[in-house]
Design a protein that fits this description.
nucleotidyltransferase activity; two-stranded antiparallel sheet; transmembrane helix; 10 strands; 11 helices; about 20% strand; MobA-like_NTP_Trfase; membrane; magnesium
Length: about 260
């Protein structure tokens, strides 16, 4: 594993036109919604800032500096490793612009402000699994989550041999990752997103994935070969890794988990 450290990017923006969860809690910014006593951004920021291997922390949001006006996040402004960057409506474009502006800062670990349960064990496991990859994504297998939290509802990606949910952790290990961001940006701009994905990755590969003819590892390896990059999927054993805060029920669950951790 690369022991030189990494740059962390926290995606703290929200959807154009307002975020439903922020509106539910009467908060102008989703990243500042209080969870178990402090804003979501403060939870993620403190986890990353406490690590010695985090060289820099970049907070990306539409009004990034305003997020640090909150009494519980103001300390981030005084943290020498933290910078803020404004983004527009395209988060993909903002990520690409950020890593282009910081060519000496690879590798990058990408996460989100609503990834409140992020902890050192998740990051350490992900770093080991992502080692050597141009791009890597963290996932949790369905049976892992359901064993720990029966009945919890997530969006599942079906492959041969298992179903998986994203863990809001991405690894951008080299400038080659920009190839994937360019495709992601192209899909983001298309109204017919399913058709855009077919065009980006090839109809044959997309149909094989849809028909569950490929395992997760096989699919990731084929995508990597098609793009000429080293791509990895990293499975995390922590069920909490795929529980972010997107709706009120998530908020209640995460608060209960955090209280249990404190006890």
């Amino acid at each position: 594993m690369d022991n030189r450290g990494f740059t962390a990017i926290i995606l703290a923006g929200q959807r154009p036109g307002g975020d439903p969860l922020a509106e539910h809690f009467g908060q102008p910014f989703k990243a500042l919604i209080d969870v178990a006593g402090q804003p979501m951004l403060a939870w993620v920021g403190s986890t990353l800032a406490a690590r010695g291997d985090v060289r820099r922390i970049v907070i990306l949001a539409q009004q990034a500096d305003a997020l640090l006006d909150h009494p519980a996040t103001a300390w981030l402004r005084d943290e020498a490793r933290v910078t803020v960057r404004d983004c527009g409506d395209s988060i993909v474009e903002a990520i690409a612009a950020t890593i282009r502006a910081m060519p000496q800062a690879y590798p990058f670990l990408l996460t989100t402000a609503d990834n409140v349960l992020l902890d050192d064990a998740m990051i350490d496991r992900f770093r080991v699994g992502a080692d050597g990859a141009d791009i890597a994504v963290a996932l949790v297998e369905r049976r892992v989550l359901e064993a720990a939290y029966p009945g919890n509802r997530r969006t599942w990606l079906p492959f041969r041999g298992g179903q998986y949910s994203g863990a809001n952790l991405f690894w951008l290990g080299s400038p080659e990752a920009l190839k994937v961001l360019a495709i992601w940006r192209g899909v983001e701009q298309q109204r017919k997103k399913a058709r855009a994905v077919l065009g980006a990755f090839g109809i044959g590969l997309s149909l094989m994935i849809a028909a569950r003819l490929l395992t997760l590892r096989q699919a990731i390896e084929r995508v990597g070969r098609r793009l000429g990059i080293r791509a990895k999927a990293v499975l995390l054993p922590q069920a909490e890794a795929c529980i972010d805060v997107d709706k009120p029920s998530d908020h209640a669950m995460v608060e209960s988990i955090l209280r249990a951790r404190r006890q």
